[in-house]
Design goal:
By secondary structure, the protein is an alpha+beta fold. It is built from one helix and eight strands; from the N terminus they run H-E-E-E-E-E-E-E-E. The chain has two domains: 1-50; 59-156, Immunoglobulin-like (Sandwich). It has one helix at 2-50, and strands spanning 59-61, 66-72, 77-86, 94-99, 104-108, 118-126, 131-141, 148-156. Strands 1-3-6-5 form a four-stranded antiparallel beta sheet, with no helix packed on it. It has a four-stranded mixed beta sheet with strand order 2-8-7-4, with no helix packed on it. A hairpin with a 6-residue loop joins strand 7 and strand 8. The relative contact order is 0.18.
């Protein structure tokens, strides 16, 4: 029983030391962060000036963002075409198109899309496995902070 009380006492002292060291660490972090906050705010302001506000799109989809293939024969490829328009005053590029699996392959131009011009993204689906599918594709645009999402779906017979 004595051993149990001694163990609990030592555990309490250790916990107290940990909490006290965390409090000092917090004070140290507060000191550092307050000294660097102005530089961080300046950097953030520069980025904010360069990129549109969150929620402000830079492209307008001219086609639906979900493409339904319908029924596809197995072991055949099918292509979905997504068209969009650059609605900014500056040229923009598609930096990357990321697919959710290897059965989907994107194709797009690396040439900058001028203001009010139309761009195209082709998504090729390889209908290898039978059954229903729905694949997400993320499109990363140069003048936008978030990815646009497009989808292809269908049923492989």
């Amino acid at each position: 029983m004595k051993l149990l009380w001694i163990s609990l006492f030592l555990a309490g002292i250790s916990a107290l030391q940990i909490f006290q060291s965390n409090d000092l660490e917090g004070e140290f972090n507060t000191c550092i962060s307050s000294q660097q906050s102005q530089r961080f705010d300046d950097s953030k302001a520069l980025l904010t000036d360069l990129l549109p506000a969150e929620g402000e799109p830079v492209i307008e989809w001219l086609t639906e963002t979900e493409y339904e293939f319908g029924d596809l024969p197995q072991k055949k490829e099918a292509t979905a075409i997504f068209k969009f328009k650059n609605i900014t005053d500056e040229p923009m590029t598609i930096d990357a198109v990321r697919v959710s699996c290897g059965c989907t392959a994107p194709d797009w131009s690396l040439v900058p899309i001028e203001p009010d011009s139309v761009g195209v993204i082709n998504i090729v689906y390889d209908a290898e496995k039978a059954g229903y599918f729905r694949k997400k594709v993320r499109v990363f645009v140069s003048a936008q902070r978030w990815s646009e999402k497009i989808y292809v779906s269908g049923f492989v017979e």
